[in-house]
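# step 3/5: fold
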Amino acid sequence: MELVALVALSLLLGALVILVAFAVGKRKAELRDEAGQTNNCAAEGIAMKGPAAKKPKQEKQQRGRKDKSSQHNFNHPLLASSLKGHSGNVTCLDFSSNGKYLASCADDRTVRIWSTKDFLDREHKCLRANVELDHATLVRFSPDSRAFITWLAYGDTIRVVKMIKKQERSMNFKAVTDDFPIKHKGSILNIGIAETGKFIMSASVDTNINIWNLKGDILASINTNQMTNSYAAISPCGRFVASCGFTPDVKVWEVCFAKSGEFKEVIRAFELKGHSAGVHAFAFSNDSHRMVTVSKDGTWKLWNTNVEYKKQQDPYLLKTVRCTSSDGSLAALSPDGRVIAISNGCDVAMYDASSGELEEQLLGVHSFNITDLRFDVTGRFLACSGDKVIRVFHNAPGYRAAIRDMQDMLKKAQNQGMKQRLQQQISDAQSALDAALATPVQ
């Protein structure tokens, strides 16, 4: 009996020893595994702190270098300023009639309002108006400079936005409740508001021009019969609407209103005939007495449009000058009619309107084709867009032309008082030109 108990006890102790040995061995294996995992994690941690940790920084540096290299660098003695603020490509510019503001729109869903008095400053601040759920491709100021209209890229319609001034350099922007109804079937070329405030124009590539009242009702529709339209605009005087396109002429209509202010009709006024190929674009002088046209035939033409067309008097050609142009070329005529600017791709050429001489060539102004080109209302600056930056140039050819004109007048002046005034004006203009050329680019 005692022997049996002793054997059972021995077996129990043996089993316990085997169980303990197994447990210890298993625990050692677990410890080895944990140690291996710890070493692996430590190695991974070192790797994250080393090359992998540096990778985001390297990528950021590489992106920075790439972005910097992709930025379009441009400089020119006449460059007054480069307005930077848009994160998308700028598609349209417009100066307010009071001369205080420049509006720009881009595919970044914003319209920006710039102060023209900041053009020569180091900083160029702007006010931003967001375009909700869309972006604007065109923008135009109202005659009182207290609102603007935009063409919506996705909405295919006109939106009116009021500018509510809060304080100096601060505004609220409030869109009118209802956008204009959708009426155009073709892509939009241009929009505008008559300086009289009586109507709005919208023009599309499919030969259609619509005349609207300010509430969004169509007053008239014009079929230009030019196969395709390439450009259309309202004259600065607010009387005329003009268009050009596939045919080698520019057609001009008068939008007529009664003395009571009610709309009457749209009638054909006159045509500019003389080009041998389709017309890319045109521009008016500030008084609407001159027009410049640029054509596929490789010329620009200057016209006198101060005629009594109701008495069958036709505009007459003042000058024809050879130039380089291409599809999308634009024309701008300074407010006083002294300087003509023509765009060709990324380049701009500035001509003396009187002599036709090429005064300035601005090459590679933008990284993409120029989308808008226009003088400010004072004629001091020429602005253009073609990428994310707006370039503003001194109108040096305008100063030089004004000086030449005044020198000619001085030679003919017989009155001493007149001579003194002209001499003072010449001196002032020369000082302004010298200051413009000496101003560093901001």
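# step 4/5: annotate
The helical segments are 2-49, 51-70, 396-412, 416-438.
# step 5/5: archive (pending)
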